[in-house]
Amino acid sequence: MHKPYSGIIPPLVTPLKSRDEIDYFGLERLVNHVLAGGVHGIFVLGTTGEAPSLSYRLRRELISLVTKQVAGRVPVLVGVTDTSYVETVELSRHAHDAGADAVVLSTPYYFPAGQTELLGYMEHLIADLPLPLVIYNMPSLTKVWFEIDTILKLAHHPRIIGIKDSSGDLEYFEQVAALKKTRPDWFVMMGPEAMLIPALEKGGDGGVNGGANVMPRLFVECYQAYRSGNSNRAAELNALIQKWQSVYDIGKYASRHIKATKCSLSILGICDDFMAEPFNRFHPPERMRVDSILKSVLDELHGFLP
Questions:
Q1: Average pLDDT in the 257-269 region?
Q2: Catalytic (active site) residue 164
Q3: Which neighbouring-strand residues pair with 65?
Q4: Domain boundaries, the chain
Q5: Per-residue pLDDT for 267 more than 90?
Q6: What is the pLDDT of residues 70-103, one digit of tens each?
Q7: From 5, 136, 223, 248, the catalytic residue
């Protein structure tokens, strides 16, 4: 039986120097940064990693670089969502060969799939994937939910080992978490970082939180405080996580969440903030606002850390 993953697993940003070039030194610093912060795993090629905007060549290179650097210290999960069944399988095989631990799959985007179509698609994929599969529910971007009835049917497949839910619907999350009663080897992770504590209260196992790229120890310490029963410390650290959320209000486009994360990392000197096209990095006025929020939260965080 698979041991469920738990804790904080950051959806790693993809440090870029140009349209199709990884910021190699930045990637190395970023992986060292999150590992030093105590994270419990790393998820590459997710939404925060700008996966759909990256070439297949670069995706493969990123997987190889990260798995080599992590060297088994924590699990590496790889996003393989694509509009092409064949490309999903091929990327999964590369992830397996590179030493990744699991693949993460959302619903194919562009043409919305019906639940019957989605169920058949997943059952076919499971047979072709060389690694365990984590379901990724991201309806705001893919236009399709993994509905509860579909999840119930998929739960019978032992090679599906968990779910990351980024719907923001706590009632749905609670229903998914309840499946652990019949699948104790499952794990259920929350995407939206502002909902980390409510997700844990609903039976979740942790968070795949973008802010953990920037301040991994904040999210790790909050998670550990909750798990150890130190509710006061968990609440104080969660208040800082909520304060941090204002950084995502900078800018007017949906890409602002990734822009703010990459901008913060560049301010910290960790990696470049080049964005995959058609997106652009923040301009100086927005960058100044990010810098102000980042410094304010970090100043308070230092008072909580040993």
A1: 98
A2: yes
A3: none
A4: 7-238
A5: yes
A6: 999 999 999 999 999 999 999 999 999 999 999 9
A7: 136
**Contacts of 10 by beta carbon, 8 Å cutoff, 6+ apart:** 34, 39, 42, 43, 48, 208, 209, 210, 212, 213, 216, 219
100: its two tokens? 């990744």
Identify which of 261, 121, 114 has the alpha carbon closest to the alpha carbon of residue 135: 121
pTM of the model: 0.96
Query: Does the annotation mark 121 as catalytic?
Result: no
Homologous superfamily (CATH) of 7-238 is: Aldolase class I (3.20.20.70)
Catalytic residue among 5, 164, 180, 226: 164
**What would the mean pLDDT of 172-185 be, rounded to a whole number?**
93
> pLDDT-derived band of residue 268, with 50, 70 and 90 as boundaries?
very high
The stretches of 130-274 forming alpha helices (DSSP H) are 139-142, 148-154, 170-177, 196-201, 216-227, 231-244, 256-267
What does the mean pLDDT of the chain come to? 96
**DSSP characters for 116-168?**
HHHHHHHHHHHHH-SS-EEEEE-HHHHS----HHHHHHHTT-TTEEEEEE-S-
Residue 156, burial from CB neighbour count under 10 angstroms (0-12, 13-18, 19+): exposed
Task: State the sign of the Cα–Cα–Cα–Cα dihedral 109, 119, 169, 180.
Answer: negative
